[in-house]
Write a structure and sequence with these properties.
This protein is α+β, with helices and mostly antiparallel strands and 623 residues long. It contains 20 helices and 22 strands. The strands form five sheets. Strands 1, 2, 6, 7, 8, 9 and 20 form a seven-stranded mixed beta sheet that branches.
Length: 623
């Protein structure tokens, strides 16, 4: 018996779930294959979604019609908008989720999609014909055929777990690794390497003395990720807590260094520099006597806590003893120790910007297989791989987001153009146009795209159009309404800004840093004439205020982005021979031949390709 699908997605982590849901929603007959259907979208590390730049990615996924934001909102047990003290380009939403419910809600969502089927098994081989993937084979000996295959294997490819001198084969703790695929793909000509990530011990909350920790509550008026107003959490908000290591903790940890796989040569792969293990921190920051930790709940129906900032691969007893020297954790018991895991990944410069591989047609990679880390980065890649696999199968235009369109565009362009030399994590600093790529306006940037291809629903699109119209009406009102001194001077004096002597346009007052939009409306009698939908009220006000306050910066970035976009519109012919241009530097010829950029803009972002090399290319291409 041979079953054929339009798209097969291998792996049901965050990339796989987003890929499967998008492909099936778009209309492709889709099969999702995973080791364990009870571990769909499993939060193997911190049970949180979002954070600096990552929160913007989740809002972008939602705006396009993806599901990560919806699932997060349904399972949120704490929400915080990070970086509120900075400008709105830096505001980043973050939610602590109920780990178990997150998986349950994802499964519900996937099982509600008509075109999506499931198979619990391990894919150990691809079926390739004439340099084109046409299906997969599983450990059970089952063959499935497909027009496209998306690999989202996470940390499972030859995964190896380390706890002290103990090494265990596995993709996650207590879960089997996947073998065979890496070896086959390497034989096809792909370049592979190893990376490392890690996770901390889990604590028994019944044994934690929370009175000795610093409580960190949810925002007083928590926001959410999805732009759909009816999607929200019904779960009681939980607190996180702050703890600190100390000299005694460090002393115990150092006694385990000889047995640390990081230091004794067992682990040779590269780990995330921005999220180091606790033992690495002691080496890198040897002058510090204390490191901040976050004690975070894993759900509302469990006493399990996550000790954020204490990732470790030290022997389990060293971890245990060190944790018991932390104030508030003196009597803490652990459910399981932290561990490091090594796994295979493939150089992402071997991918087109659609995430289709250059060597094998209709084969797509998404997530940690591309050298990234993080649920959010993985989900974004899964979404875009599925969109482009569906588009190609249906002979429709590929969807490539530019760097001024989305953080997703920055992420994928970085991967396929620059490659990785450590696990890639998104930061706001990676985006040149972060004032344009704010979390509040992801829908205005991307919902049209999602709706046009059939991923964003009509309901989502109509909500977006209403919001856009109400922002426009409100902006016009503020431009035209003049405030009398008697209406506003008391408030101006109260917040420490100059009073006015004559009628002043509301928009001019809003431009002052001390004034926010709600202060104005509290004083404007005519504001009640503006009708804003209750469920969109906060979003409309926030977007309108940001657009007005930062209009100068926004216009300047749009100008720069439009100039850069002209280079991205200049196409380089397929299979162009860069080696025949002798006037290019040797490094430029090598890098351009390896990456095979599709546009002059992409070529200009390749490390080692200089502005003079770009000028030579422009001349050679008749530009």
């Amino acid at each position: 018996m041979l079953i054929t699908y339009d798209i097969i997605v291998v792996g049901a982590g965050h990339a796989g779930c987003e890929a499967a849901s998008a492909a099936a929603t778009l209309g492709s007959k889709t099969l999702l294959i995973t080791h364990d259907l009870t571990k769909i979208a499993h939060m193997s590390c911190n049970p949180a979604i979002g954070g600096i730049a990552k929160g913007q990615i989740i809002r972008e996924i939602d705006a396009l019609g993806g599901r990560a934001g919806i699932i997060t909102d349904k399972t949120t047990i704490q929400f915080r908008m990070l970086n509120r003290s900075k400008g709105p380009a830096m505001w980043s939403p973050r939610a602590q989720c109920d780990k178990t419910l997150f998986t349950i809600e994802w499964r519900k969502e996937l099982e509600s999609i008509k075109n999506l089927s499931f198979w619990q098994d391990d894919v150990n081989a691809l079926i390739i014909k004439n340099k084109k993937v046409i299906g997969v084979k599983t450990r059970m000996g089952v063959t499935f055929k497909a027009n496209a295959v998306i690999l989202t294997n996470g940390t499972f490819l030859n995964g190896l777990i380390h706890i002290g001198r103990q090494s265990i084969s596995g993709g996650r703790i207590s879960e089997q690794a996947s073998f065979g695929l890496t070896e086959q793909i390497v034989k096809l000509g792909f370049k592979s390497d190893r990376m490392k990530t890690g996770t901390p011990a889990r604590l028994d909350g019944r044994t934690i003395n929370f009175t000795q920790l610093i409580e960190q509550k949810s925002d007083e008026n928590p926001e959410k990720f999805s732009f759909l107003p009816n999607v929200k959490t019904n779960l009681q908000q939980q607190s996180c807590f702050i703890a600190h290591t100390n000299v005694a903790v460090h002393k115990i940890l150092k006694t385990g260094f000889d047995d640390s796989p990081l230091f004794n040569g067992t682990i040779k792969s590269i780990g995330p520099r921005y999220c180091p293990s606790i033992e690495t921190k002691l080496i890198t920051f040897s002058d510090k006597n204390s490191h901040q930790l976050f004690i975070e709940p894993e759900g509302i129906n469990t006493c399990e806590y996550y000790i954020n900032g204490f990732s470790s691969s030290l022997p389990w007893d060293i971890q245990y003893k060190a944790i018991n020297k932390i104030e508030g954790l003196q009597n803490a018991k652990i459910f399981r120790p932290g561990y490091a895991i090594e796994y295979d990944y493939f150089d992402p410069t071997q991918l087109h910007p659609t995430l289709e591989t250059k060597l094998i047609k209709n084969l797509y990679f998404a997530g940690q297989i591309n050298g990234t880390t993080g649920y959010e980065e993985a989900a974004a890649q899964g979404l875009m791989a599925a969109i482009n696999a569906h588009q190609k199968n249906n002979k429709s235009s590929e969807i490539i987001l530019n760097r001024n369109d989305a953080y997703i565009g920055v992420l994928i362009d970085d991967l396929v153009t620059k490659g990785v030399d450590e696990p890639y994590r998104m930061f706001t600093s990676r985006a040149e146009y972060r004032i344009l790529l704010r979390q509040d306006n992801a829908d205005s940037r991307l919902t049209n795209i999602g709706y046009d291809i059939g991923l964003a629903s009509k309901e989502r699109y109509e909500i977006f159009k209403v919001k856009e119209e109400q922002i426009k009406i409100l902006s016009e009102f503020l431009k035209n309404y003049s405030i009398e001194p008697k209406e506003i001077n008391k408030t101006l004096k109260l917040v420490g800004t100059n009073e006015i002597n004559q009628k002043t346009k509301a928009i001019d007052l809003l431009s002052r840093p001390q004034i926010n939009i709600e202060m104005l409306f509290y004083n404007i009698k005519g504001f009640n004439k503006i009708s804003i939908a209750k469920e969109l009220y906060n979003d409309v006000l926030q977007c309108c205020e940001i657009e007005i306050k930062y209009s100068g910066y926004i216009e300047r970035e749009k100008h720069y982005a439009n100039k850069a976009l002209k280079f991205d519109e200049l196409k380089i012919p397929v299979n162009f021979n860069f080696n025949k241009i002798s006037s290019l530097s040797t490094e430029a010829r090598q890098k351009l031949s390896k990456i095979k950029p599709k546009t002059i803009g992409q070529a200009s972002r390749i490390p080692g390709v200089s502005p003079s090399d770009i000028n030579i290319l422009l001349v050679f291409l008749g530009r």
